[in-house]
Amino acid sequence: MNAVITGASKGIGKAIAARLAKEGFNVAICSRNKATLEAAGAEIQQQNPQVQVITMPVDMGNRQQVLDFAARVNGSFPAVDILVNNAGLFVPGALHEEPEGLLENLMALNLYSAYHLTRQLLPPMIARRKGHIFNLCSTASYKAYPNGGAYGITKFALLGLSKNLREELKPHNVKVTAISPGPTWTDSWAGFEAPEDRMMPAEDIANVVWSAYTLAAQTVVEEIVLRPMLGDIG
Question: Which neighbouring-strand residues pair with 85?
Fold first, then answer.
């Protein structure tokens, strides 16, 4: 069994990769920072020496690097059972105050990366009539909020991509799930001071991925929204 998780050197991506490796999956992970990526890969490998852990530094906002990563995956795995499009960046700000080019940069990283990687890894899934794609959206995919700016636009778009994929892949028996977490303890919230019970642990998102994957073959969870017990922050 093989899984691909983008943006997996820390936070939600790392938690998902660790959980899948624990369950016996070979994992291919990527992120921009080579040092943190290799450290994450070594930690995951140590937790389960029986699985293969592939690491590759990738700027997911760069189309060619995304395609190179896909080629590496296709050359290493005969097929991918789970694809988790997790790579993304949160930059707060109002649309009229954002720096020029921010929308284009966030679209490339938060949306186009999932589009291009999915297209490259889909053919074996379709041929086998088996596979599960998870797109890490956000509560911002459902509800606009002040200072959501370009980030909010990209997350609405990623949910739209997920919905389209779901409809297109029904006849091919490939599952698609959009997971939309609210505030989660990740580097996106670095420097934010909040009581521990106001943020969700990344491991909870990993557990949800595993639960959705292990359902019966004829069952698919299309969308999952998670929030802290006391609701959104801010």
Answer: 135
Domain that holds residue 6: 2-226
Structural domain contains residue 124: yes
Task: Give backbone dihedrals phi and psi of 143, rounded to 5 degrees, phi first.
Answer: -140, 120
Q: Which of 112, 115, 142, 151 is catalytic?
A: 151
φ, ψ for residue 68 (rounded to 5)?
-65, -40
Cβ(128)–Cβ(172) below 8 Å: no
pLDDT band at 94 (very low <50, low <70, confident <90, very high): confident
Is-catalytic flag, 151? yes
For residue 181, tell me if it sits in a domain. Answer: yes
pLDDT tens sequence across 158-208? 999 999 999 999 999 999 999 999 877 766 555 556 666 777 899 999 999
Threshold 0.90, pTM exceeds:
yes
Q: How many residues does the chain have?
A: 234
Burial of 197 per CB tally in 10 Å (0-12, 13-18, 19+):
exposed
